[in-house]
């Protein structure tokens, strides 16, 4: 493959430097905290209940459905701005979008508006309506956090991709702003795709994004704020001489996208990465620039991994190995490792690895070649994709955003009028205890939503039982729980070895598990989402702890794609089994062992909603009892609404 620099001679337009008066901040009411420590609980023992749960969903038939128009066939009433003759899906254009189930799948549960309304989240970011996918260009500027996102303003399926824009003072309460960029130039006529922001030392902001051209070529474009004195950064200018990078020789022009945030090299010039694929290997191409208008392809690659397919949304950032501070993207030196993350288009999963970056050769080497990008650690083992970090210079944190994808049908998404949610932003740090993974933890600002809490101490959960936790409403929760196994040392020898160590359903009983929580479960356990630890013994005798989310019984809706998600988690000798869950209607974000392994779930209960949703402890081990101690907060809703621009 031969790389070729892209052309451009036009100067970069300098932006006005005069600071303008700051606009008044949007009002965001803080929730009232009521900390009511309640140890008393009504405990309800249901012996062996998970084992006999016989889910017999009422299969919806076409005739069960109330008559309604078919949103896929009645496209005349759905306004797609381009190519109205075909349904615009990412897969058909060679980019990731929701790919399962098939868009042709007409099977649908008999959803009611109340069910759809319940699915909307209360404290996660989602647009008022329509389709959203990747987070783009997150940044902090003049008192505001900015989130941009891939957005279809016309429909609840992928297409006509623009950059939506919202701002927040605290990463929790959000105000929608006008669209930041729409596909209105030849160099992005097919969509303003994913990109990243870089804050330059002189105060300027640059955004590099992928444009899908009028000829379906993926190019990298430059944009910048029209008015740097506007803290809301409402207007964006596309550099007139875009594109600034075109696909090099040897690269498929439809597989060349998603520029990273830039970092400065030892020579004082900037570097960025662009993801692509060569002969089935995922690759990160590296470009160098001094002015963001002229880029030069570096002779080698930052990194490549055989057989991992197209790398989308590459992210590359430093982490401190000796402090929990986040690092600005250009930091290198002693006590610094670098995380390389790629979103694997073939698997729709975000993988990362930790390694060493050589800023002179512009190469990166994984600490463990056997756990290279795409082979080992996942950023999140659930329904999660296209994640991106930014350095928050306001608080010195590195903050991670990720896209929670839907697993219902496009048909259902069109009926409910929206698709996708962003995760609660997470702080990323290096795990000093293991030395081999990152930790992800919800930003502390989410705790401002905590209302009254209920505590449970040392609840005994016997082998083969479930314990109802009497907490009232169970759909907006922040749950912190630790488990201890009674007498596990003696029982290790009894554990049956397993040939394949991977998450199985929560009904798969062995000596030491599974045990955990049943979330969004109805009282009869006809619908439930178990989140659990399972300790497995491999044939070589070693024990591995798995952290899993079993969505197979999460919904009676047959069209919803359901599977068991999860992966291994290190539980060190001095540690209990700990998990934290953020439950927000149809979203569960689950963090094990302080964020070593994370699973995001998007689920669609039909019964376990509103007041019928319950929370249980469960223990499906055959050989051990466990005890659990919990603190559970009810969570307030966040204010997420349009910015009152007319009041300014
Ligand atoms: N989504 C964008 C692409 C990116 C993909 C298009 C990942 O730029 O590769 O909406 O979800």
TrEMBL record:
Domain of life: Eukaryota
Region of interest called Disordered, as start-end residue ranges on this chain: 1-28, 57-96
Domain annotation Beta-fructofuranosidase N-terminal: ranges: 12-115
CDD domains hit by this protein: GH32_Fruct1-like
Record GO terms (molecular function): beta-fructofuranosidase activity
Annotated keywords: Glycosidase, Hydrolase, Vacuole, Zymogen
Pathway(s) the chain acts in: Glycan biosynthesis; sucrose metabolism
GO cellular component terms, A-Z: vacuolar lumen
Homology family: Belongs to the glycosyl hydrolase 32 family.
Protein name, as recorded: beta-fructofuranosidase
Organism: Rhodamnia argentea
């Amino acid at each position: 493959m031969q790389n070729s620099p892209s052309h451009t001679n036009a100067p970069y337009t300098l932006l006005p430097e005069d600071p303008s008066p700051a606009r008044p901040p949007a009002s965001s009411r803080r929730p009232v905290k009521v900390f009511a420590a309640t140890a008393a609980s009504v405990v309800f023992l249901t012996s062996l209940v998970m084992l006999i749960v016989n889910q017999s969903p009422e299969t919806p038939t076409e005739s069960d459905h109330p008559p309604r128009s078919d949103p896929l066939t009645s496209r005349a009433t759905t306004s797609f701005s381009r190519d109205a003759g075909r349904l615009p899906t990412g897969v058909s254009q060679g980019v990731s979008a929701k790919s399962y189930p098939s868009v042709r799948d007409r099977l649908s549960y008999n959803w009611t508006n109340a069910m759809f309304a319940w699915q909307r989240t209360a404290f996660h970011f989602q647009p008022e309506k329509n389709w959203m996918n990747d987070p783009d260009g997150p940044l902090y500027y003049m008192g505001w956090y900015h989130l941009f996102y891939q957005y279809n303003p016309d429909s609840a399926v992928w297409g006509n991709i623009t950059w939506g824009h919202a701002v927040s003072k605290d990463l929790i309460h959000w105000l929608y702003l006008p669209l930041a960029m729409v596909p209105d130039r030849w160099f992005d006529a097919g969509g303003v795709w994913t990109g990243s922001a870089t804050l330059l030392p002189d105060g300027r902001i640059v955004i590099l994004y992928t444009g899908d051209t009028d000829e379906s070529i993926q190019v990298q474009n430059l944009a910048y704020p029209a008015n740097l004195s506007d803290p809301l950064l409402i207007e964006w200018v596309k550099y007139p001489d875009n594109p600034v990078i075109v696909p090099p020789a040897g690269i498929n022009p439809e597989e060349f996208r998603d520029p990273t945030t830039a970092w400065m090299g030892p020579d004082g010039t900037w570097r960025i990465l662009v993801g692509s694929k060569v002969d089935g290997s995922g690759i990160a191409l590296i470009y160098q620039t001094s002015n963001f208008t002229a880029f030069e392809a570096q002779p080698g690659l930052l990194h490549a991994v055989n057989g991992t397919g197209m790398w989308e949304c590459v992210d590359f950032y430093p982490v401190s190995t000796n402090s929990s501070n986040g690092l600005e993207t250009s930091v290198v030196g002693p006590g610094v490792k670098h995380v390389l993350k790629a979103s694997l288009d073939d698997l729709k999963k975000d993988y990362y690895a930790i390694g060493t970056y050589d800023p002179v050769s512009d190469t990166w080497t994984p600490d463990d070649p056997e756990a290279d990008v795409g082979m080992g650690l996942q950023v999140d083992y659930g329904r999660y994709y296209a994640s991106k970090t930014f350095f928050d210079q306001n608080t010195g944190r590195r903050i991670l955003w990720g896209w929670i994808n839907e697993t219902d049908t496009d048909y259902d998404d069109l009926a409910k009028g929206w698709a996708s949610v962003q995760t609660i932003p997470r702080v990323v740090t290096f795990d000093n205890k293991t030395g081999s993974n990152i930790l992800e933890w919800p930003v502390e600002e989410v705790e401002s939503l905590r209302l009254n809490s209920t505590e449970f101490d040392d609840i005994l959960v016997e082998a083969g039982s479930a314990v109802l936790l009497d907490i009232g409403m169970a759909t907006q929760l922040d749950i912190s729980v630790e488990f201890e196994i009674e007498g596990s040392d003696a029982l290790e020898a009894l554990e049956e070895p397993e040939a394949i160590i991977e998450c199985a359903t929560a009904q798969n009983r062995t000596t030491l598990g599974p045990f955990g929580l049943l979330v969004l479960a109805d009282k009869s356990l006809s619908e439930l989402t178990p989140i659990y630890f399972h300790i497995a013994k491999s044939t070589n005798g070693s024990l591995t702890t798995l952290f899993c989310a079993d969505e197979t019984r999460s919904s009676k809706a047959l069209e919803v794609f359901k599977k068991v998600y999860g992966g291994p988690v290190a539980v060190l000798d001095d540690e209990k089994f700990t998990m934290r869950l953020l439950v927000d209607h149809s979203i569960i974000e689950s963090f094990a062992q302080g964020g070593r392994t994370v699973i995001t779930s998007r689920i669609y209960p039909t019964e376990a909603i509103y007041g019928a949703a319950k929370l249980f402890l469960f223990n499906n081990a055959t050989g051990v009892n466990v005890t659990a101690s919990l603190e559970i907060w009810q969570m307030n809703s966040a204010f997420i609404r349009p910015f009152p621009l007319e009041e300014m």
